[in-house]
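Q: Could you fold this chain for me?
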Amino acid sequence: MIRVRGTLLPEHVLLDLTARSREEIIGQLSASLRSDTRISDWKGFLGALAEREASGKVNLHFGLTLPHVRTSAVTKMLMAFGRLAEPLPQKDGPLQFAVLIGIPRAMDAEYLRIVGILMRVFRNEKLRQKLLLAHKPTEIIQIFENGETGRGEDE
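A: Sure. Below is the predicted structure, expressed as structure tokens.
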């Protein structure tokens, strides 16, 4: 079973991003993944992400945008997390967080499980506040792990 800790690495957690658009956020998160060996074809990954984004943006409640792509350019599921220094106004509500997910074509169930974990964390006001206040990438990963195991939801 894929775990958050193996999917989201500290070097892919960007705190206090500054961006003027959702596209800038995605660009910064993508750039953090540039040297990740789980991406076997960088140009293929970027192309598939751009194509997916052109077909529709996924902005969810709770200040979260969730750009994701299912592609053969990824050998294992990977994630990048970004927290904006200031919320970015959008027509469907301000964005504060972004999670970029790259999914191999054959990982549907694992992808749905990871999205379920993300939503459990973002729906919980206390965990969302912890994401806003965290100072280190390892703290962000721990918050998601707490959402994965159910620990810390009532704190």
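A (continued): Residues 36 and 67 are 18 Å apart (CA to CA).
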